[in-house]
Design a protein that fits this description.
hydrolase activity, FrsA_esterase, Rossmann fold, two-stranded antiparallel ribbon, Hydrolase, globular
């Protein structure tokens, strides 16, 4: 059934079963963090694949950094507010959600795309290197200007309840070999060969991949950054071609997502459900 229309550049129906009963016990939970200027359904097909595979899935809009709210976008505070948002989401799901009893609190995973990828790494123990960013940052507005003006930010929230993660093309601006070494939990890492807004031409995230310790499961996709977003409807493609047009143009996003979603589900099953399908 259609739960209602959403407007995120173009209107489309979000399908689902409203207020359906939750069955099962000791179910794993995966929380989702969207990218810069995104929204909670930016990876809706991946969320749906996990839900259909027996996971509880929860996603939110990060206040001030969504498709329809840019009030905090590209500012220094958003680097701290995003991890805090996810801690609050996890608190709600484990302590206040009406069906919280079905969740196994020892089986919590995280999925983050782009700036959401940074968000996950921070929650997993990474402390962003703002001194490095201030030294190399050339922008004259937003985060760079605030850093150059001497503004600071406390270390972002961490959350030991997260046991594993899928990190997808993370925003690399504050990632270094040293702070990545603080991340000790297992995770799956995806990057795009050609990059895009927020991640450069693919080289910065490739460099990040080379710094990762512990040999995480690694995937490189011969496409641009936005290939990881859910395949677009024709209406979305017409309204937001920047998001929906792939690099190279002949890249089959829908076909890739069948493989991507299967790999993500398999990884979370292995990490959180003991490999049971």
């Amino acid at each position: 059934m259609a739960l209602g229309k959403l407007s995120v550049g173009a209107e489309f129906n979000l399908k689902g079963a409203k207020d359906c009963p939750v069955t099962g016990a000791k179910l794993p939970l995966v929380i989702f963090s969207h990218g810069r200027g995104g929204w909670f359904g930016a990876n809706h097909d991946t969320e749906e694949a996990l839900a259909e595979a027996g996971f509880i899935v929860a996603a939110i809009n990060h206040p001030g950094d969504t498709t329809n709210d840019s009030s905090r976008r590209d500012t220094l505070p958003v680097w701290g507010s995003r991890p805090a948002d996810m801690v609050r989401l996890l608190d709600f799901m484990l302590k206040d959600w009406k069906d919280r009893a079905v969740i196994d609190p020892a089986k919590v995973g995280f999925f983050g795309f782009s700036l959401g990828g940074y968000t996950g790494l921070a929650l997993m123990g990474l402390k962003p290197d703002f001194a490095w960013l201030a030294e190399h940052c050339k922008e004259t507005s937003g985060t760079c200007a605030q850093l150059h003006n001497g503004e600071t930010l406390p270390d972002p929230s961490q959350d030991a309840r997260i046991r594993t993660a899928v990190i997808v093309d993370p925003a690399p601006a504050v990632l270094t070999r040293k702070n990545l070494a603080a991340v000790k939990i297992p995770f799956q890492f995806w990057r795009s060969q050609f990059g895009g807004p927020g991640v450069g031409d693919g080289t910065p995230v490739a460099r990040v991949a080379g710094w990762l310790e512990g040999k995480p499961e690694m995937h490189v996709v011969p496409a641009g950054h936005f290939a990881y977003l859910a395949p677009c409807t024709p209406e979305q493609a017409a309204a937001v071609p920047r998001i929906c047009t792939d690099t190279p143009t002949e890249f089959d996003r829908a076909g890739f997502h069948r493989e991507f979603n299967a790999a993500v589900v398999k990884f979370f099953h292995e990490q959180l459900a003991g490999g049971d399908q």
